[in-house]
Description:
It is a single chain. By secondary structure, the chain is of the alpha/beta class. It folds into two domains: 1-79 and 114-250 and 332-357, TIM Barrel (Alpha-Beta Barrel), CATH 3.20.20.70; 83-109 and 252-323, no CATH class. Helices cover 37% and strands 13% of the residues. It is built from 14 helices and eleven strands. It has helices at 9-14, 31-39, 53-66, 87-99, 117-126, 140-148, 160-168, 199-209, 223-231, 241-244, 253-259, 284-289, 307-315, 338-353; strands spanning 20-22, 44-47, 71-76, 130-134, 152-157, 173-177, 183-184, 214-217, 236-239, 267-270, 278-281. Helix 2 (31-39) crosses helix 14 (338-353).
Amino acid sequence: MAAGWPDKRFVDRIGTALPIVQAPMAGAGDHVLAVAAAAGGALGSIPCGMLTPDQAAAEVSAVRAASTAPINLNFFCHTLPPEPDEAAWRALLQPFYTEFGLDGPGAPPPLRRPFDTAMAGLVETLWPEVVSFHFGLPDRALLDRVRATGAAIVGNATTIDEARWLDSRGVDFIIAQGSEAGGHAGHFLGGDCAEAMGTFALLPQVVDAVSVPVIAAGGIADARGIAAAFLLGAAAVQIGTAYLRTPESRIFPKHREMLGSAAAEHSVVTNVFSGGLARGLRNRLVDAIGPIGRDVPPYPYASNMLGALRRAAEAAGDIGFSPAWAGQAARLGHDEPAEVLTKRLGREAMALLGDRQ
């Protein structure tokens, strides 16, 4: 099938049957989803940003035991700000603690750590075919260690300036992440987030600005989106939200239900779950505080006070205090296994592009 794609640079380098990347969705995907997506021809991804090195190693071991397909390990490269004063944030959440019979926030969850020497050592041990980074890149010494393994290096850009920055540092592929994308936007060079571009404005400008193949991400959930991305110069697409409705995803049942309802048509960019800007479906916390809360601590500290509240609410079947990440194309998804979804998207996209074999 790969022979018929207009741009074969991704499939030729990575060795997948299809130029599709299953997005590494932290908390929603693991080795089960990665293996299933890979069985359909996509590049399966393991989100490592919330894992310890031992946990990441176990995930990769599970993939390798089930599949010989290439694998992508995804890491965060955020800069940790000084620990903030969280008094105002706690005051906002106190009525909810009281409602669920909690004395307070309880012990905070493990803090999301940026890529470091321990994770670089893990990459050197595991030899993944692809390593992707969100929120920029690690420092040059760490990046050189990853490059020395032979892994293809993928960076994520939300602006043309970010794409140029990544290109100048020698990445092998650049993701052009449009504002339609679910989950965290990978901003890392600052700028005005009000200027965020949609995928099909950002993509062709990034293609024109850089020297490496570009992967389109954001708002792509069916064959029409895949075909459009290729017509605008993409060498591959990254798909996340469409995989959330597969049985292999780890999302909460209520989240899955929302994705198949009119609620999926009303995603918002919010900072109330992590402190970083991320797109998800409206829920009780978003509506109570507003999508962008002024007193929300910066990323990743905001989640420190939500762990016990989330667990208490989820135990009652309520995800009003949990992120229900989803992109703007959520309504285009279907309930089907990841392997079936992947093969169908590849087949239908090829039909739209015209079989060139």
